[in-house]
Amino acid sequence: MIIVVSPEAAPGDIDHIVARIEESGRQAHLSVGAERTIIGVIGSDSPELLDTFLVLPGVESVHQVTKPYRLVSREFRGDDTVIEVGHGVTVGGGELAVMAGPCSIENEEHIFESAQAVKAAGANILRGGAYKPRSSPYAFRGLGEVGLRYLAAAGRELDMPVITELMSTSEIDVVCEYTDIIQIGARNMQNFMLLDAVGKTRKPVMLKRALSGQIEEWLLAAEYIVAQGNPNVILCERGIRTFETAYRNTFDINAIPLVKELSHLPVIADPSHGTGKFGLVEPVAKGAIAAGADGLMIEVHDRPDHALSDGAQSLTYERFAGLMRSVAQVAAAVGRDISAVGVAAGAR
Amino acid sequence: MIIVVSPEAAPGDIDHIVARIEESGRQAHLSVGAERTIIGVIGSDSPELLDTFLVLPGVESVHQVTKPYRLVSREFRGDDTVIEVGHGVTVGGGELAVMAGPCSIENEEHIFESAQAVKAAGANILRGGAYKPRSSPYAFRGLGEVGLRYLAAAGRELDMPVITELMSTSEIDVVCEYTDIIQIGARNMQNFMLLDAVGKTRKPVMLKRALSGQIEEWLLAAEYIVAQGNPNVILCERGIRTFETAYRNTFDINAIPLVKELSHLPVIADPSHGTGKFGLVEPVAKGAIAAGADGLMIEVHDRPDHALSDGAQSLTYERFAGLMRSVAQVAAAVGRDISAVGVAAGAR
Amino acid sequence: MIIVVSPEAAPGDIDHIVARIEESGRQAHLSVGAERTIIGVIGSDSPELLDTFLVLPGVESVHQVTKPYRLVSREFRGDDTVIEVGHGVTVGGGELAVMAGPCSIENEEHIFESAQAVKAAGANILRGGAYKPRSSPYAFRGLGEVGLRYLAAAGRELDMPVITELMSTSEIDVVCEYTDIIQIGARNMQNFMLLDAVGKTRKPVMLKRALSGQIEEWLLAAEYIVAQGNPNVILCERGIRTFETAYRNTFDINAIPLVKELSHLPVIADPSHGTGKFGLVEPVAKGAIAAGADGLMIEVHDRPDHALSDGAQSLTYERFAGLMRSVAQVAAAVGRDISAVGVAAGAR
Amino acid sequence: MIIVVSPEAAPGDIDHIVARIEESGRQAHLSVGAERTIIGVIGSDSPELLDTFLVLPGVESVHQVTKPYRLVSREFRGDDTVIEVGHGVTVGGGELAVMAGPCSIENEEHIFESAQAVKAAGANILRGGAYKPRSSPYAFRGLGEVGLRYLAAAGRELDMPVITELMSTSEIDVVCEYTDIIQIGARNMQNFMLLDAVGKTRKPVMLKRALSGQIEEWLLAAEYIVAQGNPNVILCERGIRTFETAYRNTFDINAIPLVKELSHLPVIADPSHGTGKFGLVEPVAKGAIAAGADGLMIEVHDRPDHALSDGAQSLTYERFAGLMRSVAQVAAAVGRDISAVGVAAGAR
User: Fold this and answer.
1) Measuring CA to CA, which of A93, A190, B29, D217 is 20 to 30 A from A165?
2) Which domain, by its residues, includes D261?
3) Which residue pairs from D108-116 have beta carbons closer than 8 angstroms and sit at least 24 positions apart in sequence?
4) What is the per-residue pLDDT across D162-204, written as a single tens digit (0 to 9) for each?
């Protein structure tokens, strides 16, 4: 940590700052420049320490020099993490993962039919929501456990791992029973109790970035999970909230290569939420793969105008199959292994 | 709901849209203009319906005409809600409420001493965190139940209601046992399971706005609580996340008068989080009161450079007493009843 | 400037960084810590230098330690700047300045009538636009020079200084001929040629903050003007662009006390643009004054539903007079001198 | 335009709204629903009209149903615009355009050498700045006309069209003399006088999106130019300003397919500014092309740590050549014609 001393600091201020550094069990290293005096704090950084120094008289600014996350960083682990998610499917490490299915599990027949359609088009993981976070208390909020049972059955039948969202620690046991991958939604990225709880399981966890989650906060949220002993974390970029109102969210493509540089964890792109408009899903999916994403999560519905949620961003089976063909071309062009998704790049 | 038909719609598209409206149990009302055909949907709006229409061929845009929240709206209830929070203190309805205390409950002696100091300066509600949401898993996360016990004891001793944050449904019983007001933090504004749970209690709930929470989403989150049967909701503006990096958050003063126009619920301002810098807390507190806030929440610490959390935005006892004197002046100028906070406006 | 060396830096990287520092005419000061090596750069900072070091191999991050603006900073000048704007009116230094009038100058009679109305209510500076920045090329774009003539005549007649917006260097002479204060609009905050041009005059300049202008960029834009020799700069906070769609802009009240801490220049609040909704103008105006603004700019129109621009945020004469009475109360409560605005604080 | 009447409207309000609509020369069409009365306004929309209706008593909200831009819309022109920019190069229409070169023109030799390097790697348009918008008045601001002369000479010598930024109407003649494409920078997207001025030339204009420019505003800015008679407008997405601080700007990939859906104008991606970090330029460039961009603008410098501006986001010649090879692969995968950029897709 580095403390910049204000040019208007009073004579005793520097002594006081040094004393406070030493009180914290660290050492101070002074460097007197022409314009500013700078004090290096030798010893480990901590978030509280930043605040501590900021309020001391004579301090102009405080700069952190180490990153606040460790276990999820590239420094800690140079190789890409590859996660086995069941049924022989892996996420990370070159192979493209494609999670697809309806936003909500609507009924038994529908999730089976959806699973068949997305598998036929090349998806290798089945998604479906049983507990739905909805802005309005009057909207459809999911089938709950019965939905999970349908989802698990469809996954077994089609030999696909399944992913579903966990919204509260109180459902963790039932969700773990039925799912292969636990999804933590954007609105729960900083639900720290939930992060701790999934960290205590060994299930793969897909952690979505919050609507206004900074990269550093997102990686810290992943750190919560890994720090509890669960190394199987998949990140998911799903669009951020900006001033632009032409789409529901703004897909942040910069995040893909940056997160892969900062962390060894795999990163999935969700262009369905990242745009909120079905017409933009395919081009943004291609963009995300070209930029290095390890896979996609796509909402698919046979009749989007009858979907119980997220119809506006859902692709029909036909559009999804088209997306898979064109994504396969792009994936091949950037050197991805697309054997898992079962679509020939030349099949366009 | 209003559907705007695209000028490029195919001949059968309008018939199809009308049929889908009628299938949903509503009626369609066509209006053919020079530039666009518009279809009014007669019957109640719902979030799913918006998506339903957006994906129909020939639809250019869909506009909601009713607000998605009801129980918390001014339309539903014209008079201001006034909430009894215990020890004879009310929030809303003319009287100024001031919640103050340390960010975290640090130990028994400290919370007692803090309570005495903030009460002496004019605060009428005591705050203190026992479960702390922290970006980093390595930061101090609160004393838990033992902290709640200290807080409740300090409130009893000083005859002040107390407020503390609830982070998870699993702590709801213990938090309810010790606190007078439950705080839902910004990061949990859309933790819908938690909203449901506090909606089933009858405790006053203070609901903070999320970092990127739109006014409509915030009121919908309040609607979740009220829809479960708990009408005692207090809103709290605590700053939003913007592009500006000169402060931790940007206090949104516009929200104060707008929320009071749209809703009958009281609104508290939290300039400590709303700025993140102790030097800005007092001017922004005065601004919020001048703009019509029903009260303040302020972080106070005897030695901010030794605070276990949020030191940079905490006021010393002395600064807090100064804030109370100047806020009382402003409150009097805008016609607020400041008898509860026990500071004479002329005492400056 | 401080350079943080990456823990993965190659052996020769530090030598290379030091060499590059010395090549730039500065000195390097190494500090080897347990977790990171830090290199202090001794000598003046510059924006190019930041980029220079960021791209060197082995550099993890670069931190600026001095502020990039000088002449407008509190360090450079401790006392508040007070600007004479004509007709005996000053901006800054304790006295409240109130600029009011229609968005656009519509015709001669209208600007005279508006001037009388706002003066009667207590405004001491007359505003009116002759060159209007409009998002659409099909909107009303102002009367140009003829409008300026009407504005100047109204100001002379009512003994009030006038303010109007300058949009391009090509109108600088004609605008300077007729106006007392030149306004630089939000969309031109970083129109550097325009900043240079007004810096070469000695007219008072009111510089609005850009829609996404950071505080540092805003002060640097002011520095452009002062660096050319014109010290008469007034800052104006007019709301920023955020994710919130309930208002046109989000008035940033934090900016008021922060800018007054960082700079000696006066700061005016524009709650008309800062909210975009007439119903929010008065509460936000009171809030801005309570937080320390040196004055207000308010759009006023006798019949807002017939205004040629900005009707939705314009106050009627009656509402404006009401605003002035309640603002005077707040101003008195925070110790402002309101003699100039001619409204007795007790007149409410 | 559609007016939603408040349920609390007074009896005469609707009559008054209808009268105001008719006064404006339009017709009113009432539709009385269960929850709200809706008034359709028949006749052309205009921005002023929105404000007019918003302030009428009894109005709850006003919705625009037609887009405010016309000439640049897909409705106006279904086919993609293809622009001849000189030396046989076109922008739009299938062929990939790549603009590359240094941020600033530094001296004659440097721009020649840069031109050779970027051409050898496959660029077909040469970029270089002679007038530089800089946040700080103390930064290098470009060589001015002498720089333009070097740039034009390099373009002639290498048989490449050139592009350079115009910052003010006062330089329009000299810039037009030397350049093939005029660039309007992000900070001038709403410098309406400048838009008018370039609209009066027939030179191709590349219009960058503002830091906080909404898609609709960006297209309206293009409309300004086309409305003056110049149809040769190229759009350029260069990243927007968000809450994320890990990069200088957030490249908005959603904008690429959306703008191509709404408008017939070509769209160029600028990942150099869109990320601000050289390490992210290549992945984001590939993503933008995969998502449908018509070309790229890339900053290149032989020694980024000696660049006079934007060093941190500049690619070395070698990195740029690598980018061109990998972009060519992606472009081929999405069916782009890459013959113009002279890089074999198989050359990787």
Assistant:
1) A93
2) 83-341
3) D108/D150, D108/D153, D110/D302, D111/D147, D111/D150, D111/D151, D111/D154, D112/D150, D112/D153, D112/D154, D112/D157, D113/D302, D114/D154, D114/D300, D114/D301, D114/D302, D115/D154, D115/D155, D115/D157, D115/D158, D115/D160, D116/D158
4) 999 999 999 999 999 999 999 999 999 999 999 999 999 999 9
What is the domain count for chain C?
A: 2
Tokens of B215: 């006014």
Contacts of D280 in chain A (CB under 8 A): 254, 257-258
Indicate if the pLDDT at residue C346 is higher than 60.
no
A51 interface with B at CB cutoff 8 Å? yes
Give me the phi and psi of D55, to 5 degrees please: -95, -5
In a domain, D121, yes or no: yes
Q: Which residues in chain D touch residue C188, judged by CB atoms under 8 angstroms apart?
A: 191
Closest CA of chain D from A79, distance in Å: 19
CB D167 within 8 A of CB D133: yes
Say if residues A230 and A205 touch (Cβ distance below 8 Å): yes
- Chain A hits for B170, CB-CB cut-off 8 Å, are 169-170, 193
Measured in angstroms, the CA of B201 and the nearest CA of chain C are apart by 31
Closest CA to C3 of C57, C53, C48: C53
Chain A nearest C-alpha distance from B68 (Å): 7
Domain CATH for B37: 3.30.70.1140
Size of interface B-D (CB pairs under 8 A): 59
pTM for the predicted model, two decimal places: 0.96
Q: Is B247 on the interface with C (CB under 8 A)?
A: yes
CA distance C28 to D194: 45
Is the Cα torsion angle C137, C138, C142, C145 positive or negative in sign?
positive
> Of B222, B180, B175, which Cα lies nearest the Cα of B81?
B222
Give pLDDT, residue A203: 98
Kindly indicate the confidence band of residue C348, based on its pLDDT and cuts at 50, 70 and 90: very low
Asked if B278 contacts B243 with a C-beta cutoff of 8 angstroms, the reply is: no
Residue C90 has pLDDT above 70, yes or no: yes
The minimal CB distance from C334 to the residues B244, B252, B286 is found for: B286
